[in-house]
Write a structure and sequence with these properties.
The protein is an all-alpha fold and 414 residues long. The protein has two domains: 93 residues, no CATH class; 264 residues, Rhomboid-like (Rhomboid-like fold, Up-down Bundle). The chain is 66% helix and 2% strand.
Length: 414
């Protein structure tokens, strides 16, 4: 006769209340029953009569005596002992094979060893070997030069070109839409797109071995043998795609387009090229003064930090949100905080052992020059605004219209 679940529950509650049971002892007895049942079975191919012997051997041996676990020997102890024995056997065979190969190599003549090494080494075509030799400097040591002899020529050229860039920014006037090369493309996208294209072309050139000689000579900043135009050419030179070129170009597109809208093409081009060249000059000078002539530099990181820092400086008191965070009604993160975070990370990088793999000096100097450029642009826009207001007072009429980039800056500041 069966009982309902409700009746079974009432009976169990009665037994638990009136008939005390030691559940720990019962669990131990059940475990002993299960162990006894396992001893009569096979363990992965081990015959049943040998199982108990495996259990006995699996105990820890201390002082020459076998000391089994206080809980008794289990099936996992047997498996562990078997696996350990198998691993020791494999290690013994590997050691014997290694020793056998060493004995065979010891019997070979030097000529036979050279032949084997030649077969295992990757073969390089004669043409590739020729390009490698032409692209590699034949200098056994840096040429004997004083520090100023290395730094001064590049400094003169960079400062001269930077001055020309400042003049370009001052006198540049945006053409009318019908006069632009790509009238249907926004000016910011066109300018940044050209810079992106030049950087991708520079990356592609490194894939042509016959060009390595020219690229190694002119498209790198080499403190040991600097070239005056090196800081400008190196801005468009990347050798690694995912670790170097792609991150730089993403940041260039994100911050370059918005900064271009804020300050106009003339100021933007001058800021990008100027901060990139000046940061390269600073980095080269530091490595020359440190006598670290084994380093070579390339990439647009200094210019990238320059335009990003310029943008955050112009919007240093404005709040930003990333993917809607922090949520309303909380205030966003000010631009000055992002700028401080970027600078702080690179300052920490100065004290890391891997500092030579990332040119943090160019990053920091690029950020400094970017802030200086943004400050000068702000002052220039404020001066223009004051002049226009003064002219309005004198004439009593409406002030002359400003360039789009000027009005954008002034509306945001107002």
């Amino acid at each position: 006769m069966g009982y309902s679940k409700e009746e079974q529950k009432i009976a169990l509650d009665y037994l638990r209340k009136n008939v005390p049971v030691d559940e720990i002892i019962n669990a131990g007895l059940k475990a002993e029953d299960e162990l006894a049942a396992l001893e009569g079975q096979e363990i992965e191919g081990v015959e049943a009569p040998k199982v108990s012997k495996l259990f006995h051997k699996a105990g820890e041996i201390k002082g020459g005596e076998s000391k089994p676990s206080i809980y008794g020997e289990g099936v996992f102890d047997a498996i562990r002992a078997r696996n350990k024995a198998k691993m020791e056997e494999q290690m013994r065979k590997r050691e014997e094979e290694k020793q056998r190969k060493e004995e065979e190599l010891a019997k070979l003549t030097p000529g036979e060893l050279a032949k084997i090494e030649q077969q295992t080494t990757r073969q390089v075509s004669p043409r590739m070997k020729e390009w490698l030799e032409k692209g590699t400097s034949d200098l056994e040591a840096p040429p004997e030069m004083k520090n100023w002899e290395r730094i001064l020529p590049t400094t003169v050229v960079v400062l001269l070109v930077t001055g020309l860039l400042v003049a370009y920014a001052e006198f540049y006037r945006a053409p009318k839409r019908q006069d632009r090369l790509w009238p249907d493309i926004p000016p910011a996208a066109a300018t940044v797109g050209v810079l992106l294209g030049l950087n991708f072309i520079g990356f592609a050139l490194w894939k042509a071995p016959r060009l390595w000689r020219v690229l190694n000579k002119y498209f790198l900043i080499v403190p040991a043998t600097p070239k005056p135009l090196g800081p400008f050419a190196a801005m468009f030179s990347h050798q690694k795609f995912f670790k170097h070129l792609l991150p730089n170009m993403l940041i260039l597109w994100i911050f370059g387009t918005v900064l271009h809208d804020d300050i106009g093409r003339g100021n933007f081009v001058a800021t990008y090229l100027g901060t990139g060249a000046l940061s390269g000059l600073v980095s080269m000078s530091v490595y020359v003064l440190r006598n670290q002539f084994y380093i070579s530099l390339c990439g647009a990181s200094g210019a990238i930090y320059g335009i990003a820092a310029a943008y955050f400086w112009l919007h240093r008191f404005e709040d930003f949100r990333i993917f809607g965070l922090p949520p309303e009604p909380m205030n966003g993160i000010p631009g000055l905080a992002f700028l401080g975070l970027a600078v702080g990370i690179n300052i920490i990088g100065l004290f890391r052992l891997s500092v030579h793999s990332i040119d943090v000096i160019a990053h920091l100097s690029g950020a400094v020059f970017g802030c200086i450029a943004a400050h000068l642009i702000e002052k220039k826009q404020e001066a223009k605004r004051a002049a226009l207001q003064e002219k309005k007072k004198e004439t009593g009429g409406p002030a002359p219209s400003l360039k789009p980039s000027d009005s954008i800056i002034m509306e945001k500041k107002a």
